[in-house]
Structure formats: structure tokens, C-alpha cells
Amino acid sequence: MAWISLLIAGLLEICWAVGLKYSEGFTKPIPSIFTVTAIAGSFWLLAIAMRTIPLGTAYAIWTGIGAVGAVIFGIVMLGEAASIGRLIAICMILGGIILLKLFSPA
């Protein structure tokens, strides 16, 4: 259950990162409400996951999911550059997430 909570927390981190972009500095009400709600849910689920999963592992995976998701969203939906360097960086982050999961004691 902790790993599912962590995965959903990471997905919500992607949501709030995207929401920040569309809230335009919290000047647009609907995207701002969405962002704050996603932040609260993400932190809550991260806290639940940390009951079982070690701090370093949980936090690194949470931020990794958010970072990779935000970059992919930017490339696919916002037309950001998909350079070879960025794609290699995404693969490296994903590799780190997988290794942390594999070698986690929880």
C-alpha cells in the first residue's frame, strides 16, 4: 500500500507542477485551486508512504516521478525541446528510481 501511495503522490506532483504553469502565478482561480488541491494530496500521500518507506527512498522517488512527468508533459504538450541530453537525463532519473525501488528495504 505504501508504494501505491507513493506512486499516486508522484503523479499528483506532476499535476501540481503543471497546475503551477497554468495558474500563472496563482492569478487564475481554477488552475490555482487545482494546484493547491494536488499539492495537499501529494504531500498527504507522501507522508503516508513514509510510514513504511525510508525517507531518502520515498522522497527521491517522489521527486523523480514529478521531475520526469513534468519534463515529459513539457515535451509532449507544450512543445519543449526533446534534445538527446534531456532524454538521456530522463532515462537516468528513471534508472535511479528503479534502483531505489529494487534496493529498498521496505
Please give a structural write-up.
It is a single chain. 81% of the residues lie in helices and 0% in strands. It is mostly helical and 106 residues long. Helix 1 (2-23) runs antiparallel to helix 2, helix 1 (2-23) crosses helix 3 and helix 3 (55-78) packs antiparallel against helix 4. It is flat and about 40 Å long. The mean pLDDT is 96.
Secondary structure layout plus pairing:
Blueprint: H1 2-23, H2 29-49, H3 55-78, H4 84-102
Main attributes?
106 residues, mainly alpha, 4 helices
Q: What is the rounded Rg?
A: 15 Å
Q: Flag low-confidence runs.
A: none
User: What proportion strand?
Assistant: under 5%
Q: In whole angstroms, how far apart are the ends?
A: 11 Å
Count of DSSP strands: 0
DSSP helix fraction: over 70%
Shape: flat
Number of helices: 4
Mean pLDDT, rounded to whole units? 96
Largest sheet: none
Structural class: mainly alpha
- SSE succession: HHHH
Quick structural gist:
With 106 residues, the chain is an all-alpha fold. 81% of the residues lie in helices and 0% in strands. The longest helix is centred in the middle third of the chain and has 24 residues, at 55-78.
